[in-house]
Amino acid sequence: MTLHFSGPLLMYWRELYPDFLARLRETVSRSEFEVLGGTYSESVLSLLPWEDRVLQLKKGRELVEETLGVSPRGLWIPERVWDPTLPPAISEAGYSYVIVDDEVGYRSGLWKDDVHRAVLTEYSGRRVGVLFIDGPVRYILPWKAPGEVLGYIRSFATEDGRLYVLWGSDAEKFGEWWDARAAEQWLRTFFGMLKGDSSVALLTPSEYILRHGYQGLAYLAPGSYDKMMEWSGGYFPNFLRKYRETNNMHKKMLYVRGKLSLLKASREAWEEYLKAQCNDAYWHGLFGGVYIPFLRQAVFEHLVRAERLAEEESGYYLGNSSVVRSLDFDFDGVDEVLIEEKEVNAYVKPSDGGSLFELDVKMPGKEHNLLATMSRYREPYLEDQKSVVPDWYRRVAFREHIWRKDASSADWINNTPFVDVSDFALGNYIVEAVEGNKLVLSFTGRDWSDRRRPARIHLVKTYEVLGSQRTVRVRYRWRNMERRFIDPKLSVEVSLFPRLSYEEDSDPTYTVDGSQRLSVREGFSSPWARTVRVESPAFPTVTVESSRHAEVWVSPILSWYRTEKGLRSEYQGLAVSFNYAVALNPGETFETEVSLSW
Question: Please, which residues have CB within 8 angstroms of residue 116's CB and are 6 or more apart in sequence?
């Protein structure tokens, strides 16, 4: 038996179940089990900068040594995501071998016997051993009868005994995926058959390498197990392109890393940063991944906390109330504008409708990104769900629309085609000025209600970030550029991610102008209102307010995603739309202000 426990699980046991951890440590010391190391926060190494790869591996090794009392020789890489540039980091962290899937070997030109022997690989002159998990045995153990599994293993018998069959998979297959009692009985029967079969040698990976060595050198392409290759399109970082929310978290991680290095952050800040690299929120396959709201929330909590600690320790804001940066934050070739204050970060993307895509609350103990929403994407497993229409824009804050006159709240949230008759939502806004904590954007869009005579409307949108007042205020000035009367239904959309409680099984709630309190999983419409207030456990009330009365639509952002137990609906955020029915003569303007405060 060779065991791996993720870093987060070891930390969890250490904090909450030290007695169990002590028993586990004693069991390991009295057994012939081999224990594999891993990354500190179960992070996928191919997403990390070089320095973080080594740090994650070394700290993961130290965690195993501290909690279980053994020094691991082998490495379990999360989701078995292999990258050919990993050997130097693995070697520097003190590991001699790593376990990957046979899929990686086959895609690199190896044959069947090759992936049932240990090989060596190298990068930049640093080498590491590789053992391959047998793919077919993962699909029959424990799903087939013990005798059938044992027969498959025997099929690899040779005179020299150098071929191995390595089963490497999740322990949850013995209790979570099927009945726990039946799974335990299966395992007892199977182990009994193995012990009684003299034709099968039971070895740990280290024992195998000691007895049989390596068969030679191999170079392995990027890869993972077969399903992950399918979900990722063959290369794990593709998830960063597929999901803008994943890319947002990843680029926030890189940005925070730069700030921690610059400010010579404390060990505590670096610990928070490393915990934010836990892999689950950065991808999606059979499990919820990035669609699980708690995972996104936790990543931002750790990142924002790491950033806050580094800023406080260094006196980052001494003499400056605001720090404004124009940079390509998300690496798409176009600059974003980042407004940072001691209490808040506000990130604006002019090229995506001039929207606010991240709003970090930097309150001690309540660190949170109020815009960690999740948009709905076109997923292959939803193709037969005709009522599920993916979002055509990212559900964040301060995005403008002009609705068709007969549009409803259901049309808006369910993405009825052509319900938005303008080009404001995805417009590439011009940065007119940056003045302290203010950002002025403009865009000339068209109302295509009458496709023969689209009406030009010029919009000036001014962001003001008031960190000390816990407020972001946006002023709007819409101007009719035509020589004729127009009456558009203007809209300002704000999508939020109220903070969820980890301890209590209770959703955030909201009211509209003091209406009946509703769960954020329920929708509401008002023909004449100004204020939406959202209350979350252990977090300040969040208020979205318009300076003018408007028709107000409020709706949960609900998505469907695949799990091992079928499709599941999940809450991803709360969307608010302020709709203004205006009448504008030639050259006339309509002004309003929408604020977001907490």
Answer: 132, 134, 156, 163, 164, 165
Pairing of strands 323-327, 336-340: antiparallel
**486-542 residue pLDDT tens:** 999 999 999 999 999 987 778 999 999 999 999 999 999 999 999 999 999 989 999
Question: What does pTM read for this prediction?
Answer: 0.96
First to last CA, the chain: 52
Enter the tokens of residue 315.
């006196």
Question: Six-digit token pair at 1?
Answer: 């038996």
DSSP assignment of 550-572: EEEEEEEEEEEEEETTEEEEEEE
Burial track 180-194 (b if 16+ CB lie within 10 A, e otherwise): eeebeebbeebeeee
CA distances from 125 to 58, 82, 85, 197 (A): 20, 18, 11, 42
CA distance 336 to 328: 6
Phi/psi for 131 (5° steps) reads -115, 145
pLDDT number for residue 503: 79
Distance CA 389, CA 265 (A): 44
Domain 371-597 has CATH 2.70.98.10: yes
Q: Where are the domains of the chain?
A: 2-232, 371-597
Mean of per-residue pLDDT scores for the chain: 96
* pLDDT at 332 (0 to 100): 98
CB 574 within 8 A of CB 510: yes
Q: What angle do CA 288, 230, 100 make, to 5 degrees?
A: 90
The answer to whether 474 and 460 are in contact (CB under 8 A) is no
Low-confidence ranges of the chain (pLDDT < 70): none
Strands (DSSP E) contained in 53-115 are 74-76, 97-101
The CATH architecture to which 2-232 belongs is Alpha-Beta Barrel (3.20)
Classify 438 as helix, strand or coil. Answer: strand
